Amino acid sequence: MKRLITALLVIGLPVALMSTQIHASNMAEEKPTQHLKVAEVTSMEQAKKVFLMKTAEMMSKQQIDQKAAADIHIITYTLEQSVAYFTENLTGEKQALATQMAEVVERIHLTSETSRTDQLKTHLGEYYQLVDQFLFSF
Predict the structure, then answer these.
(1) Are 38 and 77 in contact (CB under 8 A)?
(2) What is the mean pLDDT of residues 111-121?
């Protein structure tokens, strides 16, 4: 019996440690799960409309709790499409701001997906600052 327990510990412990290391590694390379398919944004007019509407929806969330995080997660699918359109079709400073916004929207998407509300609040603050600069440049 002692041999069985020792064997399980010898085999089980390294496997458990490997699993923990793999999980930690996966978190570092976290990628969003594509839950929704949304229509592609195909014009600048549509991109602006979606961008303003979805940004306003996120800003309307007064308290960032798990419900708000879930709502924001859904919003980011469409928002990502409009911001991607900007990054592909604008130039200069506007394109640079759109690229920064795309990176922050991705972080918002990931943190809202896992209800990490403290991090989500931080990323939302970053996004709103970029939005102010972006709108000023139009």
Answers:
(1) yes
(2) 96
CATH at residue 84: 1.20.120
Residue whose pair of structure tokens reads 């709103």 in the numeric block: 128
Residues 79-104 pLDDT 10s: 999 999 999 999 999 999 999 999 99
DSSP symbol at 39: P
Task: Spell out the residues 6+ positions from residue 33 whose beta carbon is closer than 8 angstroms to its own.
Answer: 113
> Are residue 120 and residue 57 in the same domain, yes or no?
yes
Tokens matching residue 64: 């960032």
Domain span at residue 113?
A: 38-137
How far apart CA 86 and CA 70 sit, in angstroms, is 25
**Cβ density class 67-87: b for 16+ within 10 Å, e for less:** ebbebbbbbbbbbbbbbbbbb
56: amino acid identity, one letter: A
41/82 Cα distance (integer angstroms): 6
- CA-CA distance, 34 to 66, in Å (whole number)? 19
